[in-house]
Design brief:
The complex is a heterodimer of chains A (about 325) and B (about 500). Chain A is built from 14 helices and 2 strands; from the N terminus they run ααααααβαααααβααα. Chain B has 2 domains: about 230 residues, 3-Layer(aba) Sandwich (Rossmann fold); about 240 residues, Rossmann fold. A 6-stranded mixed beta sheet of chain B has the order 6-9-10-3-11-12, sandwiched between helices. A 6-stranded mixed beta sheet of chain B has the order 18-19-20-15-21-22, sandwiched between helices. In chain B, strand 21 and strand 22 form a beta hairpin. Chain B is globular. Classes of the chains: A mainly alpha (about 325), B alpha/beta (about 500). At the A-B interface, helix 9 and helix 10 of A face helix 10, helix 11, helix 12 and helix 13 of B.
Chain lengths: ~325, ~500
C-alpha cells in the first residue's frame, strides 16, 4: 500500500518534471523574485495582491499564448497589438453606433481579428513573404483601420455587464476576464501537448521540410496559427476593453513586444521547435510580478523599463549558456 | 620508417569525455612530414573527435600533443591555423553570399592600407583554384555552385593556408572521378613539399591509392596500424568492424510477378527529368543508378509529391495515385526516405520518439489526442523492430549516422507502406552499419513491399537490386536485369 502510494507519487513527480522540463531556469527566477518581494514589501505576499497581479496580466497572458504558437513554428507576429485595437474598435462601433447586441459585436470583432491573422498567415504560407515583413505590414494596416473606424476617437460606456466581467470576483477570487485567460490557457496547453495538431507545430518549427515530407500540411497549419494568434489578440483586446470600460484605437500599442518578451523569457526558442506554454506562463508571471513588485517598491516606470530589458537579456543569455554546457 | 626524423605532430594518450561518456580512450598518433596517414573507422569511432582535437575545435580532457618537438595545445581553431594546421571539414562551411576569393581568404583577407586588397586576393585565389583544375572566376559568388565545386573551394581554402599539416575529412564525398584525380595529384604535390596529411575517408579504394600508412580506430581506441597503404580492403573493413565479414550484401529475394507500382511518362515541372516510365513488382528491389545530376533524386521527389509534376502519371495496383503533395503519396502507402538525413529526414534536436511520431500521428493518436506515453510506446515498438541502438528520449543528433537512418526507416515503415523509396540510404554510413541497412531493405522486399533504391554507389545498386534503371541527364537510358547489370553496362548507360 505504502509502496503503491510511493510509486504513484513518483509518477506524479516525473510527469511534473516532464511538464516543467526546459523551464526550470525561468521557474527558479520567478520563485526568487517572489521570495525577494515578499521580504522587501509588506503588501506583496497577500491574496489581494496576487489577485491583482492576475488581473494585470490577463491581456498580456492571452496575447502571449497566441505568440507562443507563432514562435513555436519559427514565426513571429508583430501585428497582435494592432489587431487587438482593430478588434475592439470594430466591436465598439458595432455596439454603440450600429446598435448591435454586445455579444454579436464581440463575435464580429473576433472574426475580423481572425481574418487579419489569416491574411498574415496566407502571405507567409502561400506568398512566401517572411513572417517579420508580413506581420509588420499587418501591424501598420490594422492600426490604420482601427483609427479609421472612429477617426481616432475613443468609444465609452458599454452595457454594465461588460465592465463587470473585469470587476466582480466570483467566489471572492476570480474575475470573468481572468477565468477566460485560464480557460484559453488550459485549452491551448492541452492542444499543444496532447493533440497531433499541436505536436505537428513542433515538427514544423523544428524543420519545415522534414515536416512537409512527413505528410504534415505545413501551409494549412501556418495559416491556422496566425488565425489563432489574431483571434487571441482580439480576445485580449476585449478583456482590456472590459477592464477600462472604453475602447480606443491606440490600445495595445507595442504589446506585441511584451508578448514576445514573455514567450522568450519562458524558454521558447525564437528559431522554433522547442518550448511551450508552461514556459510562457512563467514568462508572463515574471513580467507581471516584476511590474507589480517594482510599483510596490515605488520604482519609477522609466527604471522599470530598464529592469525588464535586463531581465529579458539575462533570461535568454542564461538559457543559451545552459544549452552550451 | 618510424626511425627517421622526428614527427611533425605527436599525440600521446589523448582522452576526451563528453559528460560521463569517454569517447577517446588514450590515443597515440604520430604524423611525419611528407606522408599521408589514412584515419579509418566506422561512424562514431572517434575519427572526427581526433581531428577536432588536433585542429583546436575541442580541447582534450587529458593527454599531450607536441608540434615539431614543442608542446602544442591550441586554445581555438585560430591558434591551430596559425601554428600551421589546416582542417577541411566534412560538411561544407562556405558563405554562399560572398565571392569564392573571399571564402578562400575568410578571416585572413590580404590587406593594403587597412583595406582588403581585392585584386591581390583574387589573384591568389585564382592560383589556388587552378591547382585544383577549377576554371571559375574567383569573383563569382559561391551560391549556386555545385556541391563538388564547393567541396573543391573548401579544399582550396585549406591549400591557401600553406599549412604544414592538413586534415582532410571525407574530401571526396561529393567529387566525381576526374575531380578526385586532380585532388590526388595535389596531395602528391603537397607530400613532395613535405606537408603531412591526415586523410579520413569511407572510400577504402582511395586509401589504397594515396596513403602511406593506415590507422584504424574503433569505439574511441586505435585498434590497428598498417605501415603501408596497400592493405586488402577486406582486412581493413574487418579491423574497422571488429569481426570478419562473410559478405556485404544479403541474398535478395525473388519478386512476385504482380506489378504494383507504375510510373508512366513522368516529366518534371522543374525541367529536371522527362518521360520516365517504369514498373516495379511486388517484393522487387528496383535500383536507380546514374551520375550526379542525372535527375534521380528529383525523380523520386516528384514521384512522392515533394516536387511538382508537369505531366505523366503514377499508378499503384492499377489505380491512379499521381500525388500533388507528400500527404497524397503517404496516404496511398508510397513513402520516401530522403537523401539528406539532417535537412529532410530528421529534426536533429528533437527526440527519437518525436521524430518517429511526426509521420505517424494518425496511427498514434486517438481522435486526434495523444500523450507522451503513447508516443514513447509507439516509438519503442518500431525502433526495436529495426534494431535502433539508443533510447527513444535521446535527441536524434546523439545517434550515429547508421542509427539515424534506422530511425528514419522506422518512422516510415511503421505505416505498413506498399512502396518504399530510399534515396542514398547508406550515404555517410560506415561499412558495418551498411549491412544492417541492406538487411532491412531485403526484409521489406520479403514482406511484399516494392523497394526503390537510388544510389551513387555502383556496388550497392548492383548488389541489392533485382533490376537497375539507369538515368543520364534527366532521361532514362535503360533498365538492366540483375544478370546483365554490371559496372560496365551501367556506366555505359549512365554516360550516354
Amino acid at each position: 500500500m505504502a509502496a503503491e502510494t510511493n510509486n504513484r507519487s513518483r509518477g506524479v513527480l516525473s510527469s511534473l518534471g516532464n511538464i516543467l522540463s526546459g523551464t526550470t531556469g525561468p521557474l527558479i527566477g520567478l520563485l526568487l523574485l517572489v521570495v525577494y518581494l515578499s521580504f522587501a514589501t509588506d503588501t506583496f505576499f497577500t491574496v489581494r495582491n496576487f489577485l491583482n497581479i492576475l488581473d494585470q496580466i490577463t491581456v498580456l497572458g492571452i496575447l502571449a499564448i497566441g505568440m507562443t504558437f507563432v514562435i513555436l513554428i519559427g514565426g513571429i507576429d508583430l501585428a497582435v497589438g494592432s489587431i487587438l485595437a482593430l478588434c475592439i474598435m470594430v466591436m465598439g462601433h458595432l455596439a454603440k453606433e450600429a446598435g448591435l447586441p454586445m455579444w454579436l459585436a464581440i463575435s464580429v470583432g473576433l472574426t475580423v481579428a481572425g481574418l487579419a491573422g489569416g491574411i498574415s498567415g496566407t502571405l507567409i504560407a502561400y506568398f512566401r513573404v517572411p513572417a517579420f515583413i508580413a506581420t509588420l505590414a499587418m501591424m501598420s494596416a490594422a492600426r490604420g483601420l482601427a483609427n479609421m473606424v472612429t477617426d481616432g476617437h475613443q468609444i465609452i460606456s458599454f452595457p454594465a455587464w461588460f465592465n463587470l466581467m473585469a470587476l466582480i470576483r466570483h467566489g471572492g477570487y476570480i474575475t470573468t476576464t481572468v477565468a477566460v485567460m485560464f480557460v484559453v490557457f488550459v485549452v491551448c496547453w492541452i492542444y499543444l501537448r496532447f493533440t497531433s495538431g499541436g505536436r505537428s507545430l513542433y515538427a514544423i518549427g523544428g524543420n519545415e521540410e522534414v515536416a512537409r515530407l512527413a505528410g504534415i500540411n505545413v501551409k494549412r497549419h501556418t495559416v491556422g496559427v496566425y488565425v489563432v494568434s489574431g483571434v487571441l489578440a482580439g480576445l485580449a483586446g476585449i478583456m482590456l476593453g472590459a477592464r477600462l470600460d472604453s475602447v480606443q484605437p491606440s490600445a495595445g500599442f507595442t504589446y506585441e513586444l511584451d508578448a514576445i518578451a514573455a514567450v522568450v523569457i519562458g524558454g521558447t526558442s525564437l528559431s522554433g521547435g522547442t518550448g511551450g506554454l508552461t514556459g510562457t506562463a512563467i514568462g508572463v508571471l515574471i513580467i507581471g510580478v516584476l511590474r507589480n513588485g517594482l510599483n510596490l517598491l515605488g520604482v519609477s516606470p522609466f527604471t522599470q523599463q530598464v529592469v525588464i530589458g535586463v531581465v529579458i537579456a539575462a533570461a535568454v543569455a542564461a538559457e543559451a549558456f545552459k544549452k552550451k554546457k | 620508417m618510424s626511425s627517421r626524423e622526428s614527427p611533425l605532430l605527436s599525440l600521446r594518450q589523448i582522452r576526451k569525455s563528453f559528460g560521463p561518456t569517454e569517447v577517446l580512450h588514450g590515443i597515440d598518433l604520430d604524423i611525419y612530414a611528407g606522408e599521408v596517414v589514412a584515419l579509418l573507422g566506422e561512424n562514431g569511432a572517434g575519427k572526427s573527435t581526433v581531428s577536432n582535437v588536433i585542429a583546436g575545435t575541442i580541447a582534450p580532457s587529458s593527454g599531450e600533443m607536441t608540434w615539431m618537438g614543442e608542446p602544442y595545445a591550441p586554445a581555438n581553431p585560430r591558434a591551430a591555423i596559425d601554428t600551421g594546421l589546416g582542417l577541411i571539414h566534412q560538411e561544407l562551411h562556405l558563405l554562399e553570399h560572398l565571392s569564392i576569393a573571399e571564402n578562400v581568404f575568410v578571416g585572413r583577407w590580404p590587406k593594403r592600407f587597412g583595406c582588403v586588397d581585392r585584386a591581390h586576393m583574387e589573384r591568389q585565389a585564382q592560383a589556388q583554384l587552378e591547382r585544383l583544375g577549377l576554371e571559375i572566376s574567383p569573383s563569382r559568388l559561391v551560391r549556386g555552385l555545385s556541391t563538388a565545386n564547393q567541396q573543391l573551394i573548401e579544399i582550396a581554402k585549406a591549400l591557401a593556408l600553406d599549412a604544414k599539416l592538413l586534415i582532410l575529412d571525407e574530401p571526396t564525398a561529393s567529387l566525381g572521378g576526374a575531380e578526385t584525380e586532380l585532388l590526388f595529384d595535389q596531395i602528391e604535390q603537397l607530400k613532395a613539399d613535405g606537408v603531412g596529411i591526415i586523410y579520413i575517408s569511407h572510400r577504402l579504394e582511395e586509401i589504397k591509392k594515396i596513403s602511406d600508412r593506415v590507422v584504424v580506430m574503433r569505439d574511441g581506441d586505435k585498434v590497428q596500424e598498417f605501415d603501408s597503404g596497400n592493405v586488402p580492403v577486406r582486412t581493413i573493413v574487418e579491423s574497422m568492424v571488429g569481426r570478419s565479414l562473410d559478405r556485404m550484401f544479403p541474398a535478395i529475394p525473388h519478386p512476385s510477378e504482380e506489378c504494383s507500382f507504375e510510373v508512366k511518362n513522368l516529366t518534371s515541372a522543374l525541367g529536371m527529368f522527362e518521360q520516365v516510365s517504369f514498373e516495379v513488382n511486388k517484393g522487387e528491389i528496383f535500383g536507380i543508378a546514374g551520375l550526379v545530376g542525372a535527375g534521380r533524386t528529383e525523380l523520386v521527389r516528384a514521384m512522392t509529391g515533394a516536387d511538382p509534376i508537369k505531366s505523366g502519371s503514377i499508378k499503384l495496383f492499377g489505380k491512379d495515385i499521381t500525388p500533388k503533395t507528400p500527404q497524397d503519396s503517404i496516404r496511398h502507402g508510397v513513402v520516401m526516405v530522403p537523401e539528406d538525413r539532417k535537412l529532410q529526414g530528421l529534426i536533429v534536436d528533437h527526440s527519437i520518439a518525436d521524430n518517429v511520431a511526426y509521420a505517424n500521428f494518425p496511427a498514434i493518436s486517438r481522435n486526434g489526442f495523444l500523450n507522451h506515453n503513447m508516443v514513447n510506446d509507439f516509438a519503442n515498438t518500431t525502433t526495436t523492430r529495426f534494431g535502433v541502438k539508443g533510447q527513444t528520449f535521446q535527441r536524434a543528433d546523439e545517434l550515429s549516422g547508421g542509427n539515424q537512418q534506422k530511425v528514419i526507416l522506422a518512422k516510415w515503415l511503421a505505416k505498413d507502406p506498399k512502396v518504399v523509396i530510399l534515396d542514398e540510404p547508406t550515404r555517410g554510413i560506415d561499412v558495418g552499419a551498411r549491412s544492417s541497412i541492406y538487411e532491412s531493405i531485403v526484409a521489406l522486399a520479403e514482406k511484399g513491399i516494392s523497394v526503390i533504391v537510388v544510389s551513387s554507389d555502383l556496388e550497392e545498386v548492383l548488389g541489392i537490386s533485382n533490376r537497375v534503371m539507369v538515368m543520364a541527364q534527366g532521361r532514362m537510358t535503360g533498365v538492366l536485369e540483375r544478370g546483365a547489370a554490371n559496372d560496365v553496362s551501367v556506366m555505359e548507360l549512365a554516360t550516354r
